[in-house]
Design goal:
Blueprint lengths: L1 H14 L2 H8 L3 H15 L4 E4 L2 E4 L1 H27 L5 E7 L1 H6 L1 H11 L3 E7 L2 H10 L4 E4 L7 E16 L19 E5 L6 H8 L5 E6 L2 H9 L4 E5 L10 E4 L6 E9 L4 H15 L13
Parallel strand pairs: 3-4, 3-5, 7-8, 7-9
Antiparallel strand pairs: 1-2, 5-11, 6-9, 6-10, 6-11
Helix pairs in contact: 1-2, 1-3, 1-4, 2-3, 6-10
């Protein structure tokens, strides 16, 4: 019974609503409220703060949820191991994604997973590098795509080198060049990709002591490309996101070696379902010759 209560608290924390949690779990709202009250009575302190805008976990509730997630993950791993022993592969894999991976990689990978392992459910959660790191720490995902090794308790597997390209419009004096020197960026209005976590573009500028003339900072890659299209500056984006550029926009490589690393971060004790996902991921990368795959099948 406690596991059901833990799952209820986890869902309430995610959707911040008793009503939405009841709909998602297929329970009545009174059952949700009763489960939370029962946990609060059992622990001896409030877990939920109720207000007009919704419900949120108290500080003590957040602490308890971290411990509950470990219990729920252990139960999930136990069920997956039992199924694995009997020759059945099933379970859930929760994956943290950056937008370029969810767009370019995951549709094909999910199709393979569904054909090969129909008993495995894939849950996707999209965010930036910082959010994915936090989801790993809190136990909300089983693995996540990151641009660096984050914490020692997680294994980091570098997967690909993704070139960073200069994005320029036809009005830019750089438009006809085959290669661009990073120093030339200082002479242009620059649209800075902005996101939390380790910023690959900022790290590159710091490495080469480049001081860009930043005009705007945007998170959305399509918004950055639109700014460039309308001659408002140049930018730098990973090659992986650059398909279907406007007719007056070019992606030009740099004279210097510029790239980001994309890797997969996981716990060391992965579930059988997560292991199957990783196997399919590596196999898919090896089969795509256009990707600068780092590991060549080993992990």
């Amino acid at each position: 019974m406690s596991l059901i209560k833990y799952e209820i608290l986890q869902t309430v924390a995610e959707v911040q609503s008793f009503t939405k949690a009841a709909q998602q779990l297929g329970l009545t709202q009174s059952a949700i409220s009763h489960a939370i009250s029962s946990l609060e009575k059992e622990f001896g302190f409030p877990l939920i703060h109720r207000s007009r805008t919704g419900v949120k976990l108290t500080t003590d509730g957040q602490t308890m949820l971290l411990a509950m997630r470990k219990v729920l993950q252990a139960e999930e791993l136990l069920q997956q191991q039992a199924a694995h022993i009997t020759g059945v592969t099933k379970g859930t894999v929760r994956i943290g994604l950056i937008s370029s991976i969810s767009t370019k990689w995951m549709p094909s990978i999910i199709r393979v997973m569904e054909q090969r392992y129909p008993g495995i459910k894939i849950e996707l959660r999209e965010g930036d590098y910082y959010e994915i790191e936090q989801w790993l720490v809190s136990g909300e995902i089983d693995c996540g795509f990151l641009n660096r090794a984050s914490f020692k308790q997680f294994r980091y597997i570098p997967l690909i080198k993704d070139p960073l390209m200069c994005i320029v419009s036809s009005n830019s004096p750089l438009y006809e060049q085959k290669l661009i020197d990073l120093k030339e960026i200082e002479n242009e209005h620059f649209i800075m990709p902005s996101y939390k976590g380790t910023n690959d573009v900022i790290a590159m500028f710091e490495k080469h002591t480049i001081k860009p003339n930043i005009r705007f900072e945007l998170f959305d890659e399509s918004g950055i490309i639109s700014m460039v299209e309308h001659h408002l500056g140049v930018s730098i984006l990973p090659k992986l996101v650059l398909t279907g550029l406007p007719s007056n926009v070019r992606a030009i490589p740099f004279k210097q070696e510029t790239f980001r690393i994309i890797g997969l971060s996981t716990t060391y004790n992965i579930s059988p379902a997560t292991e199957k996902f990783m196997e399919v991921l590596m196999e898919w990368l090896e089969g795509n010759n256009g990707i600068d795959y780092l590991l060549k099948g080993a992990y």
